Amino acid sequence: MTRALYPGTFDPITNGHLDIIQRASQLFGVVDVVVAVNTRKTSLFSVEERLEMIRECTRHIPNVEVLSHAGLMVDCLRKRNAQVLLRGLRAVSDFEYEFQMALMNKKLDPVCETVYLMPSEKYTYLASSLVRELAGLGGDISEFVPAVVEARLRRKLSGSEGV
């Protein structure tokens, strides 16, 4: 059974991410969605909040597991006994960075294979940063994120989180 890791910041998870997760769940025995902890990035949602949202949005997919990891993804790959790093490519501009990362990961762990999935056409432009910006400006994000994520994002941006 092939286990794939799908790492990302998922701040927040979008319908584009979920499209890739759903499709990957049909290709791999287990898909680990890994919230990558990056202390150099400022995130809107805490790691715990992102894990909760992803779990809620993927609970209907039996072979998806959700976790977080700080450090090299190849270390997580080894720890989870996975063989594949799964990455989404939205545009040609994503490819150069992803190509460099794939080669570095292969150098760090020769067992590591990187597999790219293109998002469905309707999600090729979608990014968490755009969703955050649109929501912050009061725009309609309902077609870009699940309802549970939209509600949490609205509460977070309004400052009423936890009220």
How is this structure best described in words?
The structure is a single chain. The chain is of the alpha/beta class. It has helices at 15-27, 47-58, 73-79, 92-108, 128-136, 147-158; strands at 3-8, 30-37, 64-70, 84-88, 113-117. Strands 3-2-1-4-5 form a 5-stranded parallel sheet, with helices on both faces. Strand 4 (84-88), helix 4 and strand 5 form a beta-alpha-beta unit.
Question: What are the salient characteristics of this protein?
Answer:
single chain; five-stranded parallel sheet; about 160 residues; alpha/beta; about 20% strand
Percent in helix? 40-55%
Number of strands: 5
In spatial order, strands of the major sheet run 3-2-1-4-5
State which percent range the strand residues make up: 15-25%
Low-confidence stretches: none
Order of helices and strands: EHEHEHEHEHH
Kindly report the average pLDDT value: 93
Shape: globular
- Provide a count of the helices: 6
Structural class given helices, strands, pairing?
A: alpha/beta
Question: End-to-end span in angstroms?
Answer: 44 Å
Note the main sheet.
Answer: 5 strands, parallel
- The radius of gyration is 16 Å
Short description:
With 163 residues, the chain is α/β, with parallel strands linked by helices.
